[in-house]
Amino acid sequence: MKTANALVALLLVIGLPASGMCEEVSAPAVQTHEGITYASGGVGLGEREAMQQMAKDYNLRLSFAAKGTGTYLADIKVTIRDGKGKQVLDALSDGPWFFAKLPVGKYRVTAEEDGRPLVQKADLSGGRHAALYFYWPEHGGKP
């Protein structure tokens, strides 16, 4: 009986770490706002892998990190305006990666972290894709 209990205990101990490693990770939710499809996330390895598989479906890909350390940042406000200055998307990125599917054209992309906006341009003319990287300098010892 002691041998059986010891075996069950051993199997439970061995099985516990394995169950944590087999955690199912789903792709971030795809959202649509006024005809613009987008997704954000990339927190954790599983979610980043899921987003990498989704990337080909989006013509604009954004990445957010701290300058110097490269620490990924989340909760970034993303505002996209078309070539005429009309706002086409205003969203909050749940993770360091933000993907959007936009109509052909030129865009002004503003990413804001903790009240600090950074602006870049994206040219999606002629079926082009754009990958923009936003890096914020650290402030107060934190990114």
Protein architecture, described:
With 143 residues, this protein is an alpha+beta fold. The chain has a single domain (24-136), classed as Immunoglobulins (Immunoglobulin-like, Sandwich), CATH 2.60.40. The protein is 21% helix and 41% strand. It is built from two helices and nine strands. The chain has helices at 2-21, 45-54, and strands at 31-33, 36-41, 60-66, 76-82, 87-93, 97-101, 106-113, 116-123, 130-136. Strands 1-2-6-3-9 form a five-stranded mixed beta sheet, with helices on one face. A four-stranded antiparallel beta sheet has the order 5-4-7-8, with no helix packed on it. A hairpin with a 2-residue loop joins strand 7 and strand 8 (116-123). The longest helix is centred in the N-terminal third of the chain and has 20 residues, at 2-21. The radius of gyration is 21 Å and the shape is globular. It starts with a helix and ends in a 7-residue tail after the last strand. Mean pLDDT is 83; it is low at 1-23.
Topology summary:
Blueprint: H1 2-21, E1 31-33, E2 36-41, H2 45-54, E3 60-66, E4 76-82, E5 87-93, E6 97-101, E7 106-113, E8 116-123, E9 130-136
Parallel strand pairs: 3-9
Antiparallel strand pairs: 1-2, 2-6, 3-6, 4-5, 4-7, 7-8
**Global shape:** globular
Provide the residue-averaged pLDDT: 83
Number of strands: 9
CATH superfamily placement: Immunoglobulins
The CATH topology assignment is Immunoglobulin-like
> How many structural domains?
1
What features would you highlight for this structure?
143 residues; alpha+beta; 21% helix; 41% strand; disordered N terminus
